Amino acid sequence: MASNTPAPEAPFDAFGGGAAPSAPGTEWNPTEDSLRAQNRSGGRHRVVKQRSNFARSSTVLGVGVIAAVGAGGLATAQEKPPVAISLPDLPDLNLPDAHDLPGVGTLLPEEEPEAVPADRANPNPLTSATYTTEADERAARTGQVTQASLTTADAPSTADAGEALRARILQQAEQQQASADAAEKAAAEKAAAEKAAAEARAKADAAERAAAEAKAKAEAEAKAKAEAEARAKAEAERLAKLAASYSMPLSSYSLTATYMQSGSMWSSGYHTGLDFAAPTGTPLKAVHGATVKSAGWSGSYGYRIVLELEDGTEVWYCHLSSMTVSAGQTVGTGETIGRVGATGNVSGAHLHLEVHPGGGDGVDPAAWLRSKGLTV
C-alpha cells in the first residue's frame, strides 16, 4: 500500500478548525493541558488523521460512529448491510486499541491482540476526534462515553424490536377484529330484536284483526238472528191478524182430493180444487169479508156461490145442497152462506173449493188458506 507524503506546511484542519503543528514532519500528541488551553482560546484542536494500519483506522472510526448513534442507532445500524470505508494510509499515531477504551470495548467483538512496537505506543488515551465543549473533553478523558457505554446485553436487539413490533401489530389486529366482531354481534342482536318486535307486532295485529273479525261476525250473526226473529214475529203477528179476519169454510171435515190430483173422474184429467168431505147440510162459512158475485146452478159444479174479496180474488163454493145468500149481498168473515151437498158431478157429499186470484186461473186452495194464517 502506497505511503503518504508528509503533511504540508500550510494550515490543515481535518475537522474545519485549528492549525497544524508548527514543525512539519514532527508528531503532535495532544495532552490534557494542551487541549484545555486550546479550548479556552475559542478554537478547535485537531489531530492529524494518520494511520499506518487500515484495519486500526476502521476500528477507531467505528468507535466514533457507535458513540454518535447510541443504543437506538445500534439497532438501526444492525439492520443495514455494512458499508465499506476506505481511507488512505497515514503516519502512525500510536493510538490505543478500541477494545481498551472505557465503556466501548464491551460493545466490540473479541479479537486477538496485536503486538504494538514500543516506539509506536501512545500513552495518550484520547482519540482523533474533535471536541467542541469542555464537557465532551472531560467525558473523553474519564471514559464516560454517552450511549456507547451500553453493554451488549443492554443494547436493544433487532429481533426483540421486530418481535415487539409484531406483537403490537397482532394486538392491534386482535383489537380491531374484536371491535368488528362486537359491532357485528351488536348489529345481529339489534336485527334479531327488531325482527322479533316486528313478528310480535304482526302477531298482535293478526290477533287483533281476528278478534275484530270474530266480533263483527258474531255481531252480524246476532243481528241476522234478531232480524230473522223479528221477521218471524212480524209474520206471526200478521198471520194472527189475518187469521182473525179469515176463517176456514168448515169447522169439521176430511180432505178427499187435492189440487191438480189426476183421475178419470174429472173431465180435464186432473182435479182443479180442494175437496172437504162432510155430511150433507153442514154449514159453510165465508172465508173473509166479501161481496157475493153470483149464487146459483153451474152445471157440473151443481149449486155454486162465488165470493169476491176486496183484492179481486174469487172463492168458489161448489156442490151445495142449499144457499142462504144471493148475488150482490155483502157478507162478513165466518158468516154462513150455504150448506154441504152432492149436487152436480159428484160421487158423494162434499165441498169443492176453488180460489182464483183476480178472477183468473185457479191456484192451490190449501196454500192460499195457509197464506192467510189458517191451518188446513
UniProtKB/TrEMBL annotation:
Keywords: Coiled coil, Hydrolase. SUPFAM superfamilies: Duplicated hybrid motif (SSF51261). Residues 166-245 form a coiled coil. Residues 1-51, 96-159 are annotated as: Disordered. Residues 1-25 have a biased composition (Low complexity). InterPro entries: Cell_wall_metabolism_enzyme, Dup_hybrid_motif, M23ase_b-sheet_dom, PcsB-like. Its EC number is 3.4.24.-. Residues 28-41, 124-133, 143-155 have a biased composition (Polar residues). Pfam families: Peptidase_M23. Residues 270-365 form the M23ase beta-sheet core domain. The keyword Transmembrane does not apply. Gene3D superfamilies: Glucose Permease (Domain IIA) (2.70.70.10). GO terms for molecular function: hydrolase activity. PANTHER family: MUREIN HYDROLASE ACTIVATOR ENVC (PTHR21666:SF270), PEPTIDASE-RELATED (PTHR21666). This is M23 family metallopeptidase. The lineage of its organism: Bacteria, Bacillati, Actinomycetota, Actinomycetes, Kitasatosporales.
